[in-house]
Amino acid sequence: MKNLKQNIYKTLSISLLAATAIVAPGCQKSFLEVPQQAQIPVAQFWRNADDANKAVNAIYANLRSWNNIAFAPIAIESLGSDDTEKGSSVNDATYLNQYDDYSVPATEGQLDSFWDGQYQTINLANQVLDNVPAINMDATLKARLLAEAKFIRAYAYFRLVRAFGDVPLRLTVPKNQTEYNMPRTAKAQVWAAIEQDLTDAAGVLPQKYDDVNVGRATKGAALGLHAKVAMYQQKWADVFNYTNQVMGLGYSLLPNYEKVFRLENENSSESLFEVQAAIVPGNADASNSQYSQVQGVRNVRGGGWGFNVPTQNLADSYETGDPRRAGTIIFRGGTTAEGDKIPANTDNAMYNYKSYVPFSLFVSGFNEGAQQNFRVLRYSDVLLMNAEAANELGNTAQALSSLEMVRERARQGNANILPQVTTTDKTELRNAIWRERRSELAMEYDRYFDVIRQGRAAQVFGPKGWKANKNEVWPIPQTEIDLSRGVLTQNPGY
After folding, report:
1. Domain count, the chain
2. Which residues 6+ apart lie within 8 Å of 112 measured at CB?
3. pTM of the predicted model over 0.90
4. Which residues contact 183 (CB under 8 A, 6 or more apart)?
5. CB-count burial class (<10 Å; 0-12, 13-18, 19+) for 185
6. pLDDT tens, 286-302?
7. Residue 84 belongs to what domain range?
8. Is the CB of residue 432 less than 8 Å from the CB of residue 403?
């Protein structure tokens, strides 16, 4: 994998249709290794396999743009939970506190940014899906590229429907002005479109790639995301089916939990899908991921800005001796496993260990941690989804088996901690699985939506101000409602 980190790619910018977004520039790992381009008129594009590859690579590049990986996702997908709070200095980016206490108005800018980020991704995918079928090229490669575009489109819509509920469902590039202003589509229809994309993708995508293409969407990624989509709809038989398929594809848990998130273990046997990032020597603009930077230890060279920090509530939630606590949280005044000493007087008591890059790897002139991938979906998540589905279906033995696989790795050889769960009571086992999800997946942008889908948000988040029949979703950005001249409607209560 070291060669993969060194064999990095150039930027890409393609001008397609005047009325659609320009392909986002950026960097990717070796499978996005393309020559630097000026903007290419649409009449000169979509001609051959090289164009198809470039267009798909641009979708991957957009996944690590600011709107997809920095403040907006922190606001929308993380800060509402009891695991996180704003962090950084008290007076910096105070608007993020509105997501922590659910007082955010529809005019707040991170709503727009998140919305824009997902629809940029969808637009890029739609351009591929509209134009690549007509290209005369190798049929197997064409099918794979179309499947990759469908997977990423499904991922973007998954993020949108979790956050906002009903959203406009656009599956093609607009052909004329009358097709631009779309109303919201019922979330059941959006879920169905996501599932169709993932079914199509899983039927085509390979189980793995050669070293040059590691990081692209795989069959396991499509099946794993499909399981998660089904879980949000409580389609337990489907969750069980898809997770069982993933469990037969050769994934495995790494022995050391903390090391799962380090650079040397990117795209490991535990990873189903990651947003790829790298430092491109001599090109700071192309090394554009700020996932690690915005969450790194504040006021430390090689650290970061200190946002999205763990709460004391999260720190106190772990079972006694659980190594995942130390593998998830960097504590003020402590020392990381990689030897970095954290100042005792830094602004925040805790920081996100999962976004951490050792300070010694900071490269002057680049974003701190610009080389850090973002783990979107891990095998332990699949195992816990399998356990939850099995329990709901009455297959207690399978539920306990999958749960134990996660806890066994968490013990890291210490048999004196994390006792094996043995209950056969459905409610008790469900609660044990939910607790395990929190400990295993903390700081990975799942907790907020997990608790809501479990029907526990009023109980868990109520002390923070969460209100039923309102805060299940965030407000539709007011900017989008205004631009639509009222075609888009607001969520209740905002």
Report:
1. 1
2. 477, 479, 480
3. yes
4. 168, 484, 487, 488, 489
5. middle
6. 899 999 999 999 999 99
7. 9-205+457-489
8. yes
